[in-house]
Amino acid sequence: MDLHILDHRLRVTSISKNGLVNFTHPLIKLIFLRNRTRCKFFSLTETPENYTVVLDEEGFKGKTHLLSFHTPTTLVPFQHVSVFMLSTYQTDFILVRHEKDLSVVISTLEEEFNIYKEVGGESVPVHCQDVSSGLQKNGKEAIQPTVHPVLIPQNQFCVMSLDPDTLPSIATTLIDVLFYSSSPKEDTQSSPNQDLDCIKFFSFSLIDGYISLVMDTEAQRQFPADLLFTSSSGELWRMVRIGGQPLGFDECGIVAQISQPLADSDISAYYISTFSFDHALVPEEDIVSVTDMLQHQRKEPATS
């Protein structure tokens, strides 16, 4: 399997639900006017708590004083490297926090991946010694990661894509779903038990000209069926949401405690980190096996 090192320099930010009104205009520009903004990496994900925005420096210009910024969550616990995972319809992205962490990531993954970077328009193989300036071997004993509680909501999710040329055709629907779908009644009167049934989750990514969408089946029904496309099987996904309270950005092993058991069980997963929590999507037909696995891992029932 190949892994490519990209030149994007990215920011991970959050917008509160109440503060969204202050950012509606720039967000609409980033979604629909990508040629004017020159932003090549943009992702917007809504969760019950807030909006997570991931964007490159071109997209971030002029907004630093209004958006809060934090470093990402972690994937490689034995090397203590913070990363932020973002799966899209087309590919998976691993965002590392510091330039110096890149050599540690390459050292960790080069036995499993063929690693390349683009030089002069061509893909050139990369090895650990090529970026060794920041590499530090960790001689300390690995810290046992915290096993976080998980939530398995009842929503069924779709992972979809869209031809960028048809984006204007769904503009009204997309704006409505992203910015106007939460009513005051939903925000103020929903009980904790209601929150366990279904959660609000919608993710839109526009990266290097490719669009990726993650939404539940209720949101999907609002879009024209002939414009969105998914895999030939049209598979549905269930979510495993990690964290009983907002996760620490420096904590190790949050992703690995879910992704490794899934990989060992040959269960595919689609992973999206957000500002407060992490989310793994697994095929609908595997949710019972995943629930059993998580119950055994935590020695207590997972909420489902």
From TrEMBL:
Q: Which domain of life is it from?
A: Eukaryota
Q: Does the keyword Phosphoprotein apply?
A: yes
In Gene Ontology terms, what is one molecular function of this protein? arginine binding
Task: Please state every residue range assigned to the domain named CASTOR1 N-terminal.
Answer: 9-61
Where in or outside the cell it occurs: the entry states: Cytoplasm, Cytosol
The alphabetical list of record keywords is: Cytoplasm, Phosphoprotein, Ubl conjugation
One GO term describing the cellular component: cytosol
Tell me the GO BP annotations in alphabetical order.
Answer: negative regulation of TORC1 signaling
Residue stretches spanning the membrane: none
Provide the primary localization: cytoplasm
Q: Where is the CASTOR ACT domain?
A: 233-295
Q: Has the keyword Cytoplasm been applied to this entry?
A: yes
| Pfam families attached to this UniProt entry | ACT_7 (PF13840), CASTOR1_ACT-like (PF21389), Castor1_N (PF18700)
The Cytosolic arginine sensor for mTORC1 subunit 1/2 ACT-like domain covers which part of the protein?
148-232
State whether it acts alone or in a complex, and with which partners, per the record. Forms homodimers and heterodimers with CASTOR2. Interacts with the GATOR2 complex which is composed of MIOS, SEC13, SEH1L, WDR24 and WDR59; the interaction is negatively regulated by arginine. Interacts with TM4SF5; the interaction is positively regulated by leucine and is negatively regulated by arginine.
Name the family.
Belongs to the GATS family.
Among PANTHER family, the record links this protein to: CHROMOSOME 1, WHOLE GENOME SHOTGUN SEQUENCE (PTHR31131), CYTOSOLIC ARGININE SENSOR FOR MTORC1 SUBUNIT 1 (PTHR31131:SF3)
What this protein is reported to do is described as: Functions as an intracellular arginine sensor within the amino acid-sensing branch of the TORC1 signaling pathway. As a homodimer or a heterodimer with CASTOR2, binds and inhibits the GATOR subcomplex GATOR2 and thereby mTORC1. Binding of arginine to CASTOR1 allosterically disrupts the interaction of CASTOR1-containing dimers with GATOR2 which can in turn activate mTORC1 and the TORC1 signaling pathway.
What's the protein name?
A: Cytosolic arginine sensor for mTORC1 subunit 1
Q: What is the lineage of its organism?
A: Eukaryota, Metazoa, Chordata, Craniata, Vertebrata
